[in-house]
Amino acid sequence: MKSLRVSDVKQKYRGKDYDVIVVGAGHAGCEAALAAARMGNQTLLLTINLDMVAFMPCNPSVGGPAKGTVVREVDALGGEMGRNIDKTYIQMRMLNTGKGPAVQALRAQADKHAYHAEMKHTIEKEPNLTLRQGIVDSLIVEDGTCKGVVTNTGARYAAKAVVVAAGTAARGKIIIGELMYASGPNNSQPAEKLSENLESLGFDLERFKTGTPPRVDGTTIDYSKTAEQPGDKQPHHFSFESADKDYLAVKDQLSCWLTYTNETTHQIIRDNLDRAPMFTGVIEGVGPRYCPSIEDKIVRFADKSRHQLFLEPEGRKTEEWYVDGLSTSMPEEVQQKMLHTIAGLENAQMMRPGYAIEYDVVAPYQLKPTLETKVVKNLFTAGQTNGTSGYEEAAGQGIIAGINAGRRALGKGPFVLKRNEAYIGVMIDDLVTKGTKEPYRLLTSRAEYRLLLRTDNADMRLTEKGHEIGLISDDRYQKFLAKKQAIEAELDRLNQIRIKPSDDVNAFITAHGDKPLQDGVIAAIFLRRPYVDYQTLMRFIDAPAEPLDRHVIEQVEIRTKYAGYIKKAEQSVAKMKKMEAKKIPDRIDYEAIDGIATEARQKLQKIHPQTIAQASRISGVNPADIAILSVYIQQGKITKLAQ
Amino acid sequence: MVLTTTEFDTIAAISTPPGEGGISIVRISGEDALAVAKKIYRGKNLDKVASNTINYGHIVDPTTHEEVDEVMLSVMRAPHTYTEEDIVEINCHGGLVATNRILQLVLSNGARMAEPGEFTKRAFLNGRIDLSQSEAVMDLIEAKTDRSMKAAISQLDGNLSHLIKHLRKDILDVLAQVEVNIDYPEYDDVETMTSKLLRQKATDVHERIVQLLKTAKQGKILREGLATSIIGRPNVGKSSLLNHLLHEDKAIVTDVPGTTRDVLEEYVNVRGVPLKLVDTAGIRDTQDKVEKIGVDRSRKAIDSADLVLLVLNASEALTNEDQELLKATEDKQRIIVLNKTDLPTKINLQQIKALTKGQKIISTSAIKANGVTQLEELIAKMFFDEGITSSQNDVMVTNARHIGLLNQAKSALEDVIKGLNDGMPVDLVQIDMTRCWDYLGEITGDSYQDELIDQLFSQFCLGK
């Protein structure tokens, strides 16, 4: 495609020197820049368009299963996404409340304009952080080490470490029916030159595709034909720092509305498949299976007579509505026809058409678990650049890349989260170990220890680490310790109190169809019964000396009720940790090891796993290959000792 | 999704060479070695016995409380052992069947079947043996790579493999549905996997595994013997072969065709495998009344046999009758015995190989007792390592590893049902359902971790 640029700058100039430079101010870039700056690094955050900092070009929502947990993990590490959404949400819902604690998921509808403005303001106020508009054309790389960036305006900025989080701007291309043009998300400028520069540095790039649905004018929606989905009454926030008292009453939240496609909608799509870029071969990028366009759904699931659609408000000060479930790249005229067949949208005014966007991705096998590239030292990548999809996935990588770039600039060692510590750890390990053939989305089923990686205990898992890194304030850390201590104390107490078989207790038990108590029972054991919760338990024993916070009670309940399963998961973690402890030397030459199967050898050579555990997770590497590798490493150790 | 952390599993194997008589040893190594042993051992408290002691006691099946064998059990505690891990060795007296039974119990109670050379590998990795010895370890593991997963699968009987794949598919549907409910809670056209529904599914799969294990019990074979028919046209030396396996003269052996007029049934223990040997009258078209009955019975003997020993006369060319017998026993577990190899060979070996498609062929001379040892070894190998299917039942598993894994899959399902009884939510109970799925996958060699996610997106229509 022809370049948008009419002419280039003739003269370069030397800009200021920084410790860390972050390229791109989407959800990954913002976290990376804030983390690096808060650790004490002079940080530059470059974005193509200052008006699109932390912009949401797709769903106006944050969280959901697995993703919501990531937001809390980012918060526990000292990141911004949780605080930012807590300040700008227009609806809050806890999903999966009927299920177990491991899969409960908080999701917020965001006011996307407020979200952007709030994040931009936070960044502007951050002492060590400079926010600047500029397109990065190339990286300054000397002797395989990244030393800065060059912008389209000719500025050369030097830095000790660089994070690239280019998102869909990387050689972005928007497609709407037959129309196709170079563009970043939401008609912003694309980054046309950076991809070429990365290729010339030896990076293997892939082409991915994603898409977004049309937006409609809310004043033209007939809500009476749709079903209301209001927010929760019970307060919930993403950030540890947000207080229940600040939670919005249901009446102050905005509702979403549920409607459906129908056979007429589907017929229109079928009639126009010859104009659908998805099927005419125009789109080359690989799209995600979990986020198919509506035309894809109609073709793949032809027997379904309807598909769910959610109408979601994009903010308080706009009448634009997002039609969730109708992602499409059909021609604009067809999109309009489709919309008008849908209950509630018969007269809806389309404000923007949906589109597909193709972009470049750095194949993630080229990354280390710190998100530093293996190809160029001191260069880190995050977010969609690494092949993921989703604001939360981007933020999770952003904070890890920012922390590691910041630590590199400070001369400190790497920071990596393991699969048993965080969804962020699962995601990054999946990316660098298995790679991805489609935009990667976190799912709870990707985590083998999801019972340990709950949304309710993200603070318990990661605050300590966030504090150590220097991103959690002492004040917050003290509050965290107090919570932790309160949980332990109450668990201890419940394990000591004995409930005697009184008439009161037995009347309660028999009312629930259980056999009455003969002997006393430990309070903690009693709490494990399905019909007993903490409040009920307090009817039969003394309350603690000081009333407990609901977050403390929640932990006491979960850790008591699911103790058996938690213990099982922890045992399996202990096993994995032993394998994680077995390091593979950096310079190992897989060609020199006899007996490893060819497929395994190629994969190992390409991915260069850091531990035996990571090696065992690579598909195509079987236990026999692992055995040979282990023996080979041990032989090397013995030889060294002999010398 | 369970990760394969096989490196630190507790492993077990029979560490004495297969063969009848004397003592055989089941060795267990790993941090759970004592815990596993304690579950099946009645005797002293193993936690309290000193290291490097040998203790008298009994092995007891913890589910049936049946006494399996009288044993001496040695306890060696880490780190001063061969593998530098805790080791328990069970010295059993009851022959190979009892030893195998004990191995099954060990594998059903927390240990995994050791790979070839795995004890030595651990010894090396834990710094117990030196570099020169490690080359031998590499060779062992490499030999295993050649055969690796595919070999393990090809050892599986087709029926069993089919059955287990079916079970796994059913479990996968359940798992995918649970996952989709979690990751897409708002999609109302996906059926919700309720506790009630999950209990039904778990109970159903449990019942099917129990049935499978019932037919799989070696105990039944121990009582009834593996029905083994010796088949061949008259005077190819069936009776001589039987006598050699029996080590006595029971059948009348003459060189007049048709001497064996009736079906002889004999019980014999061949290298620990109890065989119910059925010697038959030679099969040929005949007018002789007594022999006619014998021939009918022979055909019946083929039908009801678990294992067929088809005897051919190597000193004669292949006859039409031979060909018919080869055809009649085509679908059977069989061993082709080329007898009378002491005489000049006239039979066309290539033709037989083509007809039997690489099946096992053993050359014997029943008169001179050549090759009988080989035959016995092959029977034991087929029985213990590969599993012989029974014609009476749909599927029969005799491989200790398979039985161990089936038992673990079964107990995972019992955990599912217990969890549901305790009022645990579906997404937690599902952890045990996934374990069950993984154990079954180990039997068939399917453990593709992304299977579930693929299933999710192919089965359900999801997304913005």
Automatic annotation (TrEMBL), chain A:
FAD binds at G24, A25, G26, H27, A28, G29. PROSITE patterns: GIDA_1 (PS01280), GIDA_2 (PS01281). The keyword Cell cycle does not apply. NAD(+) binds at residues 287-301. It comes from the Bacteria. Signal peptide: none annotated. Homodimer. Heterotetramer of two MnmE and two MnmG subunits. NCBIfam families: mnmG_gidA. Belongs to the MnmG family. NAD-binding protein involved in the addition of a carboxymethylaminomethyl (cmnm) group at the wobble position (U34) of certain tRNAs, forming tRNA-cmnm(5)s(2)U34. This is tRNA uridine 5-carboxymethylaminomethyl modification enzyme MnmG. The gene is mnmG.
TrEMBL record, chain B:
This is tRNA modification GTPase MnmE. It is found in: Cytoplasm. Binds 1 potassium ion per subunit. It comes from Lentilactobacillus fungorum. Gene3D superfamilies: P-loop containing nucleotide triphosphate hydrolases (3.40.50.300), Probable tRNA modification gtpase trme, domain 1 (3.30.1360.120), tRNA modification GTPase MnmE domain 2 (1.20.120.430). Its main location: cytoplasm. Residues 225-384 form the TrmE-type G domain. Homodimer. Heterotetramer of two MnmE and two MnmG subunits. GTP binds at residues 235-240, 254-260, 279-282. It is an enzyme of class 3 (hydrolase).
